[in-house]
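Hi X.,

You mentioned you wanted examples for the new student's onboarding notes, showing what a folding record looks like when two proteins sit in one file. Here is a clean example. The first protein comes first, with its sequence line followed by its structure tokens.
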Amino acid sequence: MKISLSQVTSLEFKKAVIAVGGKPVTLSELECKGAEYAITSDDVFFMTERPKKILVLGGGYIAMECASYFKKLGSEVVVMVRSVPMRVYDPQVSEYVLKYMTEDGVEFINQSLPTEIKKNSDGSFDVVYKNDKGEAAVLEKVDTVLSAISRRPYFDQLNLSVLPGIKQTNNHKLVGGVNGEQERIHENIYAVGDCLEGPPELTPIAIRFGRFLAKKLDKQIKGEEPKELNFDYKFFPSTVFTYPEYSFCGYNEPEARKKFGSDKVKAYHGLASVLEWAMILESPKAYFKAVCLIQPDGQEKVIGLHYVGPNAGEVMQGWAVF
């Protein structure tokens, strides 16, 4: 029997799991006049025409992916970023990806913010923005403004305020750690996926995390002791689907040096020819980087691997099992 939310008055439970996922944050009218003209990454799937010129707002992986595939579809692409693109990733690897995207024709406007989107009589838009010098500038004749600035948990129909002591971050994510369990946000309430602070917003991790929690809760309900209380997601492979793809597993170099100390970390990187690109005139090189932790006996253990090249996601899957 199908039950609508309007029919539900109350539900009793011993334990509950919040796994609502996230949704794109829309551009604020307070920050940018005419924000209603901007679309989100969700709206891309309903577009019926390829834009001739598109402005992508944001510097995260979704913004970079959108910029890459619109460029490959033939659009003129401009990316506007509040700070710098891909700042949460390994700096050297990000630099290589952005270098390739720039050479491919993607234009980047860094350290800038849109202040107004004006619609022209021909249906195009002029975007007024504050540049890195604090001066007003205009990007003219844009067909589409795509906002990929952030995502937030989808809590619209949940009255979380009734839970005393529940904690949320500035971007509204739930904070776990109750009784030492990373996904436990309240006495008998848990969260997994994009709505939980900590784990990366990645589908494979959310699925694996959900399975882990289900098995743990099953043990606890039966009065048995779970084998593990917390789930280690650090060494799950991940891919940013730019062109070329960027895939990684484990720590990036700044993370490793901060966690283990600079004197205990070594990084190796280089370029390599790729057979798939061999027949392309002036073909780019694949980039790889290994982050290693020096062991007490002097040996080095790989704790981070990064690769930029064709089919990077598939390449990293194999290395991740080690």
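Then the second protein repeats the pattern, sequence line and then tokens:
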Amino acid sequence: MIRFGAQLSLHPPEEQFALARRVEALGFDSLWTGDHVSFHNPLYESLTLLASYAAVTRRIRLGTAVYLLALRHPTVVAKITSTLDVLSQGRLVFGVGVGGENPKEFEACGIPHNERGARVNEGIEVLRALWAQAPASFSGRFVKFEGVSIDPKPVQPGGPPIWVGGRSDAALRRAGRLGDGWVSYVVTPDRYKRSVETMREAAAAAGRDADRLETGHLTFITVGADPDKARATWVGRLSRRYNQDFGPLADRYGVIGSPARCVEQLERFAEAGCRYFLLNPICDPADEAEQLGMLASDILPHFRKKG
């Protein structure tokens, strides 16, 4: 089965909450947010935002894609995520990644940029220990404690599923060895297929069941009958978001155009092994509700009728 989540841009609070309720009413499976401490554009803190979503929704799962775990102490993160899982009644999906494209936020948090991968690896282990054990003990390179219990424990046994984000081989191996799933962004279907194979190989080498791993893709999508206008919107919005020219990336990585054209592009990822699309409508914030409606009416049914 193919599942669909939605990721929203930043809006004033009441508009943000209204869109979250709309995503649930439209039948999406989940609601996601990105994460940065400091970025080119304003962003809400991710876990705080998900807590607000938990209060205005009832069914959909809530996820980070992805949380920069290296920037925070994992014991504190274990407490926050345990609480969020309880308050949402077991709906949290915790996507984590190393980040790194904005070195200034590592500087601001006092974290050496070159330690981010090792910190994420260890942080995942700390989270799993504190989520599941009472009390827990841990001795690692960055974190050491003896006989510590974080309570209340998450509603989900063993804690929320951890999805690992990234495109590098190190990220794929991390997902296979330590994660419950993987989420990509800005890749082609061919690269996606190869990445799934790499992740599954790492899982098998670690003695894990690769078939249990979720495969997701954060999808930058703009639906529109006028392909040139849709493309210009996609390029303009993402270029401003990431402070770089996305023009050369549009034809290679964008899901852009009519509903039929977008379905065709998503099908290529499904054929490559993607089972969970995190759809991020790339549009003017004022048009986001309309984009979400088109995704729900013109994109999701195509995949849902296939089971």
